[in-house]
């Protein structure tokens, strides 16, 4: 894959994560705020109480969604970083086992034996860690998901 295509794929994956968080935040915001406003409106006809209850629910929900997204995406990022460390240790300790592991990943991902062998040899000449992480785990090497982007997207989507 060319460097340009890799960068486009990486940016696209990051944007999909932000979009996912935004859609989830907006959907949760609509449902929960409507529930609070309808519930309070059924108990009182005072417009200010209804408004303040709705606004407080918006703030609480937005912070809750943002916090949840941050924790979730941080965990994903930590897991991705741990996979990179694991593969680096494998490379440092047993290069042949790492080659076999990458070869097996190529086979599992649909390459024929000849192509898998060629790709493995090429990867070990260029950047074996990158190839191992991307083929075995589907992780974009050194392009980890940013938890702040997801949290901010979720907060704004819930709030709006």
Helix content: over 70%
Number of domains: 1
Strand content: under 5%
Radius of gyration, CA atoms, in whole angstroms = 23 Å
Helix/strand/pairing category:
mainly alpha
Q: Sheet bearing the most strands, described?
A: none
Shape: rod-shaped
Low-confidence stretches: 1-8
Report the end-to-end length measured between terminal Cα atoms. 39 Å
What can you tell me about this protein's structure?
One of its GO terms (molecular function) is manganese ion transmembrane transporter activity. One of its GO terms (biological process) is intracellular manganese ion homeostasis. This is VIT family protein. With 160 residues, this protein is an all-alpha fold. The chain is built from six helices and no strands. The longest helix has 47 residues, at 47-93. It is rod-shaped and about 75 Å long.
Concise synopsis of the structure shown:
Helix content is 87%, strand content 0%. It is mainly α and 160 residues long. Helix 2 packs antiparallel against helix 6 (147-159) and helix 3 (95-108) packs across helix 5 (128-137).
Please name the defining characteristics of this protein.
160 residues; 6 helices; membrane; VIT family protein; manganese ion transmembrane transporter activity
List the helices and strands and how they pair.
Layout: H1 3-43, H2 47-93, H3 95-108, H4 113-126, H5 128-137, H6 147-159
């Amino acid at each position: 894959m060319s460097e340009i295509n890799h960068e486009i794929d990486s940016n696209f994956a990051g944007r999909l994560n932000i979009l996912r968080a935004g859609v989830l935040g907006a959907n949760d915001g609509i449902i929960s705020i409507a529930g609070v406003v309808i519930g309070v409106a059924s108990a009182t006809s005072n417009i200010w109480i209804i408004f303040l209850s709705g606004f407080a629910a918006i703030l609480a929900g937005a912070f809750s969604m943002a916090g949840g997204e941050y924790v979730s995406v941080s965990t994903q990022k930590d897991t991705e970083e741990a996979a990179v460390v694991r593969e680096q240790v494998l490379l440092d300790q047993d290069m042949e086992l790492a080659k076999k592991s990458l070869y097996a990943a190529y086979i599992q991902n649909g390459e024929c034996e000849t192509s898998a062998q060629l790709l493995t040899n090429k990867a070990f000449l260029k950047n074996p860690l990158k190839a191992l992480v991307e083929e075995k785990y589907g992780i974009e090497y050194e392009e980890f998901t940013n938890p702040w982007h997801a949290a901010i997207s979720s907060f704004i989507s819930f709030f709006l």
